[in-house]
Design a protein that fits this description.
The protein has 490 residues and is an alpha+beta fold. Helix content is 43%, strand content 11%. It is extended and about 110 Å long.
């Protein structure tokens, strides 16, 4: 009667959201973010599976390296050299002097997974070169104070378009703590999954926080139970009508209670406490006990966690990988891979990684343009004649594979047929362009020829695989055969 859709009807069998929101502009508030930051950071710091999953996902996405693609090829090489010279050292790239270009990309990814977002401020060094400064999510805004200000959650937006206009940072400590407003043109708010309706990002662990907390609690309870059972390792069993314990207790009582002790939960018909048996002999330190007929000793063996509990915990742990759209095997259960399943799962993984690199490319492009613009303004990089100096292609790390030889052969064939770009492969594997790889190879061949001539060693002994290519390059092309009635000059 509430409507034609069953999903709109309340049922006592399902939990109803306590405060459902249909407008993303109303969520999250500062308290929600503060709670999510606290729990997510605690899990990443104290629960190894979460820490491993965060670092593994960041490592799978990896970092990007630039390949300038402006119309001026000579300037492209100078721009790439100037950029790497600036960003590869933390002292010239990070205002705090802590991270380099590659480390910064891993940092912003991990922070976005744990905190939801991470702010990068574009600044300059004393020499005029481009630098960056990093600020964590709790530094952006101040929980509980700016929800009703002109910059809710630390972000001032244009009311008409929702575009960020400025970011409000809380910097300093103690009495030196102050709020600084940074124009949006000078900062990059990295979010793993951007939403135009939300000014801040949610921690990417939000969907699995409860599962991780449950797993952490269950693990702690199981450890405590196993320790408790291990503290009482031996149990003695005896018949109910055994009189030996009462006799031994009475004998000890007549001697003044020497060495008496109470057996837990046992008494002689509600009378005097029962004493344990004394050692019958001592053999090289250990005590040997002689038990009465009908009695036996058994070790306590705790069967927890059961196979069913372990299987259920495995399913909850898999949610960490599902949270990012991955199969759980590459994260946690590599031994469960089969050959065909591994190939299909790696193909899914590689496609998913391309999607996850999209926000990372936006971050890299902003920082890349900032660094090059500062280098040109400082006079260390010439201003190009073309207007598309900002064009760049981002090269990721090579994809995962279970057959490296087949992949390399496929790349060689594709490059030879003009179906792939050699730069993309060489930059991902060697950090060099294809031209630089060829120049390095030519230098190695020239050095090998010089060494062979100096020491009188055949070149084939130094470079067996390259002898054929070298000889082919040195041999001149044969002269064409003369044609009847014509002279052909060599």
């Amino acid at each position: 009667m509430a409507g034609q859709y069953d999903a709109t009807r309340w049922s006592p069998d399902r939990q109803v959201p306590w405060w459902p929101l249909a407008d993303e502009r109303q969520a999250p508030d500062s308290f929600d973010l503060w709670m999510l930051w606290s729990i997510s950071r605690s899990l990443a710091a104290n629960y190894a599976p979460v820490r491993m999953a965060v670092e593994t996902r960041a490592a799978l996405v990896g970092y990007l390296m630039p390949l300038p693609c402006s119309c001026d090829e000579e300037w492209n090489e100078k721009a790439r050299a100037a950029f790497e010279r600036r960003v590869m050292e933390p002292e010239t790239f990070d205002a705090a002097g802590a991270v380099s270009w590659q480390e910064a990309q891993l940092l912003v990814q991990e922070r976005a997974m744990i905190d939801g977002d991470h702010l990068t401020v574009l600044t300059r060094g004393r020499d005029g070169g481009g630098m960056v400064a990093f600020y964590t999510a709790p530094q952006l805004g101040e929980p509980g104070r700016d929800d009703k200000s002109d910059a809710p959650l630390g972000v001032q937006v244009d009311a008409a378009t929702g575009r960020a206009v400025a970011y409000v940072l809380s910097v300093g400590r103690g009495d030196d703590k102050r709020r600084v407003r940074i124009p949006a043109e000078q900062a990059v708010l990295y979010r793993g999954k951007a939403d135009p309706a939300q000014v801040r990002g949610l921690p990417e662990l939000t969907a699995v926080i409860n599962d991780c907390l449950d797993l952490k609690d269950v693990t702690a309870f199981l450890k405590a139970a196993i320790k408790l059972s291990a503290s009482v390792a031996i149990v003695e069993e005896k018949p109910a009508d055994d009189a030996r314990a009462r006799a031994a207790s009475a004998w000890r009582s007549k001697r003044g209670g020497e060495g008496t002790a109470t057996e837990t939960g046992e008494s002689a018909g509600g009378g005097a406490p029962l004493a344990p048996f004394v050692p019958a002999a001592r053999v090289a330190g250990p005590q040997m006990i002689s038990l009465a007929p009908g009695r036996k000793l058994s070790l306590v063996h705790d069967t927890r966690p059961s196979n069913e509990n372990q299987a259920f915990a495995k399913r909850l742990l898999a949610n960490l990988a599902y949270n990012w759209g991955f199969d759980p095997e590459p994260f946690f259960f590599v031994n469960d891979f089969a050959s065909a399943g591994a190939r299909f799962s790696l193909q899914k993984l590689n496609r998913r990684l391309r999607i996850l690199r999209l926000p990372l490319r936006r971050w890299c492009s902003r920082v890349y343009r900032h660094v090059l613009a500062c280098e040109m303004a400082a006079g260390r990089l010439p201003v190009p004649a073309c207007e598309d100096w900002w064009r760049v292609r981002w090269v990721p790390l090579p994809d995962l594979t279970i057959d490296r030889g087949r992949e390399v052969s496929g790349v060689i064939n594709a490059v030879r047929e003009g179906l792939a770009d050699a730069d993309e492969w060489t930059l991902a594997t060697e950090g060099l362009t294809a031209k630089q790889v060829l120049q390095r190879r030519a230098a190695n061949l020239a050095a090998a020829q010089e060494a062979a001539a100096e020491y009188g060693v055949p070149l084939g002994n130094l470079l067996p695989g390259a002898v054929g290519a070298v000889q082919t390059a040195q041999e001149p092309e044969p002269a064409p055969a003369p044609v009847d009635g014509e002279e052909v000059q060599a």
